[in-house]
Structures are given as C-alpha cells and as structure tokens.
C-alpha cells in the first residue's frame, strides 16, 4: 500500500512540476477538489477528447454530436429524478470528524476480499502452470470461494439497503464488518444519511424574480431533451446515437484522490437509441466496443476489468463499469448502462410533448430504449497519466523519469533541438519547427546540454527529439531519437513528417480496435 501511495504522490507531483495540472486558485490557498489544467495538461486532455470523438462520432455514420447548454430548465431535473433521487449515502466518523460515502467504505472492504481471492488464484496459477483451470479452482477451493461469496453477499446486502432506503441496515453492515475510519482507525460512526449532490444557482436580474436553477450534474439530459430535434433535422433512423462532451458539476462532499473525484469535471458520453427489446444486444455490443477502444491505447489489458452493478440506478435494467487499475486500486473509469425508456418517457410526462420515433418499417410510433456509454474525461486523463509515468534504470546504472504516453495523445509530438546555439543551427531548427507545426504540435528547445534536454522531453512525454547538428548543414539530415527506446536514427529532414505521422496518427491507433 505504501508503494501505491508513493506512486500516487509522484503522479500528483509530476503533474504540477511539468505543467499538466495545478491546484486551482493556488495563490489563495486553493479550493478543495478543484484543479486547473496547465499548458501541457490542456493539450493531453484535448487529445483524449479528440481521440474519443473521432472513434465515437466520425467513425460511426449513425452517431452525431451536440453541445447542449449547462443551464437547463429546472423541470428537467425533476423529470430525470435528480431532484428526488440524486443522493450519496454519507457517514461521519465521530472521532476523526472525517466524512465518507458509506457505499464506498463497503465497496473498498469488498474489494479487499476480492484481492485476497485473486492473490490465492495467482499463487495457484504459478504452482500449476499451464495445467491450471481457474474456473474449477475458484469453484472448488474453499478459501477462495469463501472470499468471493462473502464479497457478493456484502454488496448485495448494501444494494438492498440503498434501494429500499434502509440506511440503518447500511450502517449496521459497516459496524458488523468492523470497518474503521481509514485515517484514525476509529469505528465510532454516525447514522447514514442521504445528501443531494446538485449545485443550486439563480437566473435573473433581481432576487425577487430570479428562477432557481441547477448546474447540470450530468450531460445526458441535454441529449434526451434534444432527441427529437436531432432525429428530425438529421433524418436519423433507429438505431442511432447522440454524443456529447462537456462540463458537469456535483457537490461532492467526499471529493478525493486528486482529479478522480472533483466538483467540476468533464464527461464524454453517447446515448444510443434502439428499438425496445433490442437494448441488451446493443448493451453487450457497446461493452465490447468500449473495452476495445480503451485497449487500443496500449495501457495493458490487465489494467481493465468489468464490474456488473449490484445496485441499479432508478433508470437502468442493466449496468456495468469498465474499471481501471489506478494507483489506488481498481475504480470506475467508464459506465455502460441500459437506461430503458425511462428518460424519454419522463420528459414526455413533465413537458407534455411527445418524444417518440416513427418506425416506417413497422408503421408505428414508439419511445426508443437507450444504451449509454459515459466516460469521465478527467478520470481518463488520470488513468493515462498515472500508467505512463515510470522510473527506469538504464544500463549504466543511472535512472530516468519517462512519461510513456500513447504517442497519439502526447501534448507535444516532437521537440527540435539545435546541438549548439550558434553556427546557424538554431536557424535550421526553427525552419524545421515552422514546417512541422502545420501538422503537429512541436516544440523548440535550446537550453542546457542536449542530454538534459532529452531527459526533460522524456518527462514531458514527447515521443520524438530531433537534433540539428553540423552535419545537418552539409547533407540536410538530422538525428531523431525515440522516447521509449532512446534509439537514435539519422534521417533526412524531408522524412520527418512521415516518421512522426506514422507514430501519432489517430488512424493507425484506432485501427488497433
């Protein structure tokens, strides 16, 4: 655990030191769980967003995008259920005065049981080798089966208590499991209570006439209320999707783990409208498709897993998370939900307007069902960044810090370095920058010895360093250095665009899906 904590501290430190993420309003001591994306962070974030958008919208003829307003009519949130049901179960520790989400405390306990089971499985796998039958081992080994059965029973009981509103039983479960405050070790808990997460605000010129509004807690409702507008103007036929990226806001009382859980965050999501009765087919399709998208980035298939929900949201008939192995363990990265026809029917009821699709093949109107994929952009940033940050020991015994970002996402694709700041080398380097910047985000770096510049670009995640030296003046060749292998090649200046493009183009990366 200490090692994981150290890794996470290094991630936070590196993000600030190299211009990726700053604490917001830091000169005024900042705001809890609010962060600013710095000059390199904003580029990485944009590239992740673009990678998602290209795969989701541009590569699908039947998916289009919108950008709905953050402010929406307040009845929207009554219809969606957020006014009455958008709550977190909170519990306070009386001794440490720390506040926690009761469901997270229980889920973390259940995850420890799962980790114990996985540890036993890994030991058996190493012992039996190729002959190991994991399914049979899990079914017959009493210890492993006990861990997993206990985990399932705990999560099912928690889900039942939250669904029925029996918060007393949720607290009783915490006490029976002897769950302690992570900071103080105290088991002296308050009652569990629900807390609504929406931020309220006002719209209007005076206090007397101002309308009560909410900052949107999710981006999905902007898609649902525009369903008919998009369908008719785009002449969309079922099945089709509407995608959107944008800010959402939640008054997270227990905001923690850097940018993993923030009060202002960004979502990338798509609502896929399907014929009633076909939602489970598409639910399975999007589960598979979204996992392929994540794996295309090469962060390691072992770092992803599916988690099926024990407790379903009020709108869903099936739900699963794609979880990622963050420095603090496996946590939700993306949700795939079968939302049924809840949202469109609710907005029909509250607005008095029909939100139906006329199926020309069946000659009838119906309210479509919806399958949702929703990934947190900030969480995606943290997943990519934390997995990419590595300390590497070299052959000569020295170490280097390298940010092995997928090159398609790297903020800067290449840095151009004149070997010395004289003899016309800076001028040639500037010419190369001016040529390449039409196609790529490139940097010019002339400060310090070339070795130190290499290390600086490694820490920034730059895939290529291009060194201009005296030989360049003679034959128009340069040295191109690869970040991951540190291999150096002598190539013609005219070849640079093709080499870089081959490594960073979205086409090449998305074709891995």
Automatic annotation (TrEMBL):
Keywords: Aminoacyl-tRNA synthetase, ATP-binding, Coiled coil, Cytoplasm, Ligase, Nucleotide-binding, Protein biosynthesis. Gene3D superfamilies: 3.30.40.230, Anticodon-binding domain, Bira Bifunctional Protein, Domain 2. ATP binds at residues 250-252, 260-265, 332-333, 376-379. Substrate binds at residues 101, 218, 265-269, 372-376. Belongs to the class-II aminoacyl-tRNA synthetase family. GO terms for molecular function: ligase activity. The lineage of its organism: Bacteria, Pseudomonadati, Bacteroidota, Flavobacteriia, Flavobacteriales. CDD domains: GlyRS-like_core, GlyRS_anticodon. Its EC number is 6.1.1.14. It is an enzyme of class 6 (ligase). Homodimer. Catalyzes the attachment of glycine to tRNA(Gly). Residues 107-134 form a coiled coil. It is found in: Cytoplasm. It comes from Flavobacterium okayamense. PROSITE patterns: AA_TRNA_LIGASE_II. This is Glycine--tRNA ligase. It catalyses: tRNA(Gly) + glycine + ATP = glycyl-tRNA(Gly) + AMP + diphosphate. Residues 142-418 form the Aminoacyl-transfer RNA synthetases class-II family profile domain.
